[in-house]
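Recap for those who missed Tuesday's class. We walked through two folding examples back to back. For each one, the amino acid string is listed first and its predicted structure tokens come directly after. Nothing is annotated here on purpose, so try labeling regions yourself before you check the end of the notes.
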Amino acid sequence: MIERYTLPRMAEVWSDRRRFELWLKIEVLACEAWAELGRVPLEALPKIRQASFDLARIQEVEAQVGHDVIAFLTSVNESIGLPEARYVHLGMTSSDVIDTAQALQLRAAAELILTGLEGVRCAALELALKHRRTLMVGRTHGIHAEPITFGFKVAGWVAELDRTLVRVRTAAAEVSVGKLSGPVGSHATLDPRVEQYVCDKLGLAVDAVSTQIVSRDRYAAFVNALALAAASMERIALEIRHLQRSEVGEAFEPFGEQQKGSSAMPHKRNPVLTERICGLARVVRGYALSELENVAVWHERDISHSSAERIVLPDACCLVDFMAQQLEVVLAGLEVRPERMLANLNLWGGVVYSQRVMLALVEAGMAREDAYRRVQKAALDAMRGEGGFRNNLEGDAVVMKLIGGGLEEIFQPDLYLVHLDLAFDRLGLALEAR
């Protein structure tokens, strides 16, 4: 089985140390901008640039003052000393630091997530091409419908993953904005040139009209893009779970030589990876709702969003990253059983060809309602164990008189694949567009 877990990297993106590193970088850049504008002495910059922080000290101060940014600034200022420490956080409010740093965290998290989703897409594309003409039964409502190929099914996953990648990239760009506009966002204490300088140095766009915080519709769009990514992965995982059912047995997720499926039943080969993906998708969807609730805040700012986002943002990113890695493992190691697919396709003597039989009877002159009833009876009898579908048709003198000579051609699955290449051609065009 493939092992390519990058969760330690994702965890680092959201670690306290990384958050404070970004806060410090923003504070230093703001001082540099103020120095260019003459508000901070140039000779103060060397000591400010050498500033550091102590995690234990921050935790100690926060326990006393109940404010993480103040605790952070206390530790940073202690490392700088007076008089230079007086210029740190000049004209700024806490959200200037928090939201701008959070944009960098979200952008870094999105890069990891996109890498994972690209891995899923590559594994799916390889599977689609390999099984481009592997016949199987298409199902609607969980019931046999008409012949398709497994590659065609997987091509649909590839197309959906393409859309997923576009959504996440778009949402990541939308959330990659900073703001240093001071209390209520009016720039009364922060020159807009400071904001522009800091955001340019960080590679962020400036939030055109922020309040004291970056507007949370951006965050909601990002988390909802993650929720859609999770839903798309769940769709794939759910399909594989169905195909692995004992009664179906057409495709199986990887199963290690030493792996066990049940503490009680040695025969069990449970689809634990795909079940895990489906379960986690539910959690991510819940986070999407929470972030939608965070869009509405009181006036220019409250902190009702803050407590939720400390859970929602890192957790949603970690979960989608993990889901992508798990799904890549599943697709890269998927055990496909073409012989079982073909056997299922031919169950009950070919009932999946019922539409072609009915259309052939109509073309031969039979009324559609009459044709439907005759074909339906032959099919349902077969599915009840009363003969096979084709045999039942061959026992119907009226049917045989009208289309008996063409039954062999009607029961050819290749007739259903005449436009199969269209989906792959369209997918190719989509690839060129990307």
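Example two. Treat it independently of the first, because the proteins are unrelated.
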Amino acid sequence: MSLWLRQALEGVSTRCPPLSRQRHADVAIVGGGYVGLWTAIELKEREPGIDVVVLEQDICGSGASGRNGGYVLSWWPKAVSLTRRWGPEVARDLIQRSDRAIDDVATFCEEEGLQVELKRCGWVWGAESNYYSGAWIPAVERCRELGVGDFEYLDRDKVAALSGTRLFVSGVLDRTAALLHPGRLARGMREAAIRRGVAIYEQSGVRRFTRGRPVQLDTAQGSVIADKVVLATNAWSASIRELARSIIVVSSDMIASQPMPELLEQIGWRDGAGVNGSQTMVDYVRTTLDGRLLAGKGGLASAYGGWVSERLLRSPRRAAIVLANLRVLYPHIADLVIDCHWSGPVDRSCDGLPLLGSFPGHQHILYGIGWSGNGLGPSRIGGRVLASLALQTRDEWASLPLIGDPRRDFPGEPWRFLGGHVVRSAVRRNDRAKSQNRRAGRLVSAIAALAPRGVED
């Protein structure tokens, strides 16, 4: 269990026992993370009388929603890719929607009285070496052309003031970003959904579901007959045949120090901005309100197909790699004691943007996947889109260009898993070389280029 979820469960919450009978519903949502819960909340706010059921295989928030770094970011780093794919007007619209999603999350937490430790402290995209310096410039300049975002270029001293380390040679500050406690948000959304009349069944993993209408979803002890289904299963979507080749599942490993507010004060890390590096296997670090230092790294492991094993949820070996990176960033903190470590599965799409839509020939089976490690804010958009599709509402959300049929961007198994190992090895070598201000070999660089980018594609 992550530190986030452990802390979130310290408060009293409503019991959601497993499904133990057959029941009917208008909409059944598979997955009790951000996407599933936002969809459920949105459905009940639009149509209070609708019968909505959420089926969660563990407890709500136990997947990526309670295992992420707590960064609430927009899609501005995708500005170049969005413009290239859909043109400037669509790019501007999607970035603005993702900016507003950050405000929407903050407003929701305030209105619901959720104590999620939200801070509008910004996000720093930094360069670990001169080789990476300026990696953000194309996206920032495109955003300025589009009239979106609020940025400040940073030199080494300014990055150090925001991150407590002088390892980064330069960076850019995105003032629109926020940090929060992701576990408390997930559990708070669970309570908000229950208050609106959503029926949530935890420890109720869906073993199989039919494709006809109505859909029958079977769990270990019961079943749901539903007119519409929303699949919000994140990395576990790779086990569904229609979605298996749309995503690749990789790990994001995190460690948390014991509280050390005095040490953080000594190194000058007072503002608490979230910080990312520029490597393809992204390093990220932040502080918490109780004075902990949190660090993570993405992409150190991958899953075979849709099998999210225990190894993908927790790995001492990968945690040691994250700790080693953290000690490089903060060599002056000699008394760094790690309290816990965990990992989370990331459903990485090819371009880093979510995939929303319905199964071909089965418009009643919807999906929202591919959040690529940046789903905390954009999942608010996903919930609105999926609610509109479920209600067949012809509105602005049901017409976003993100909506489409499942894509087949990745090869099937075992080639995806085997190829992933080769590419990941090349990425590690390429990242290491660039961090040392040198080029990797041509073959290594060519293979590493096959991997989806860490921040911008």
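Answers for example two:
Residues 238 and 244 are 4 Å apart (CA to CA).
The two ends are 31 Å apart (CA to CA).
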